[in-house]
Design goal:
alpha/beta; two-stranded antiparallel sheet; globular
């Protein structure tokens, strides 16, 4: 029986990068293949998008995966689904030409210097990549129903690069998609800058926003090692405010993450301080754990047992305390 594969990200996702469109924001397990996670160049409104070409490229990959061929940049990714010709769902909609997942990553402007940042080398080389005017693209996607809320009312927007809350038009991005009926957002933020729009959406029971803040430390000293900025108290204060806002609609819309970084924050003592701070002082009801990516790649995914034990420890403490818990990408594939 022929194995067949699918990925909704390849079929219906679009990562808006600062100089191109990519299929998704992942390919974390095959870093040397990231350049192949590429559709067409795009650097702003002056570039007219050939959407026919975009979907031709996507459809080609969808068909190849149905024939059992997984693209090199997707090898090892946990989002790939396996099925066969006897499956009740043949995923015919994967060949329909529409998008329902957008990752906004057209700028890497940030107010921190996290040592694990995906864009760290680019920031060193260019200081910051300031985003182009993205609204003409959004207008086209929405008016032409390329981003199609009728095909999938659960379509969602994710902010995938830099610090989104300091974008000059961050509030307007939320507003334009809300106007067209978009109800699902994902915001990955360092929490340094307090966003009134984020608070507003967290309080709104009719909009679902997943706000994830990477705190990665339980003490000011370790936070500064990770983030390279002295803003620990600011982030803690903002987490507390966001937690109070989320409580009005859905407390687990706010998650706080701990990325284990060997030789920096990889101790039970630091994890205990982070856990107690989040749960007992800041009112957080949803915790997340992961492993630092660049280290994970250098290890070829071979994670020492002590790191696995730390991940299990975070999970156990969360479960015992009745806190919602989740492993993210690197931790997830370890099958702990």
């Amino acid at each position: 029986m022929v194995k067949m594969y699918r990925c909704r990200y390849l079929a219906h996702g679009l990562y808006i990068h600062y100089d191109c469109f990519r299929h998704c924001h992942l390919s974390i397990h095959s870093p040397n293949e990231r350049n192949n996670n590429y559709i067409i160049p795009y650097t702003g409104p002056k570039d007219k998008v050939d959407w026919k070409r975009v979907f031709e490229i996507k459809n080609k990959l969808v068909k190849e995966m149905r024939e059992g061929n997984i693209p090199a940049f997707c090898q090892g990714c946990h989002w790939i689904e396996e099925f066969d010709e006897n499956s009740s769902e043949q995923f015919n909609s994967d060949l329909d030409n529409y998008l329902d997942m957008l990752w906004i990553g057209h700028s890497n402007e940030c107010n921190a210097n996290c040592i694990y940042c995906f864009s760290y080398q680019e920031i060193l080389e260019h200081r910051t990549i300031k985003g182009y005017d993205i609204f003409p693209l959004f207008k086209e996607l929405l008016e032409k129903k390329i981003y199609n809320l009728e095909k999938n009312p659960g379509a969602h927007i994710s902010f995938a690069m830099g610090e989104p809350t300091i974008l000059k038009k961050f509030d307007d991005i939320i507003k334009i998609f809300e106007k067209y009926g978009n109800k699902f957002f994902a915001l990955y933020t360092n929490g340094i800058h307090y966003s009134k729009m984020t608070q507003k959406v967290l309080e709104n029971p009719n909009v679902e926003i997943k706000v994830v803040i990477s705190l990665d430390a339980g003490t000011k000293e370790v936070f500064k090692k990770v983030k390279k900025v002295d803003k620990f108290n600011d982030v803690c204060n903002n987490i507390k405010k966001y937690a109070q806002a989320a409580k009005k609609a859905n407390p687990i819309d706010l998650g706080v993450k701990y990325i284990i970084i060997p030789n920096i924050n990889d101790t039970k003592e630091e994890i205990d301080k982070w856990f107690d701070l989040c749960v007992n002082k800041l009112g957080v009801k949803y915790l997340i754990a992961d492993v630092e990516e660049k280290w994970f790649v250098r290890q070829n995914g071979e994670v020492p047992e002590y790191v696995k034990e730390l991940l299990r420890y975070i999970r156990k403490r969360s479960i015992d305390a009745g806190i919602e818990f989740e492993f993210y990408d690197r931790a997830l594939v370890l099958n702990l």
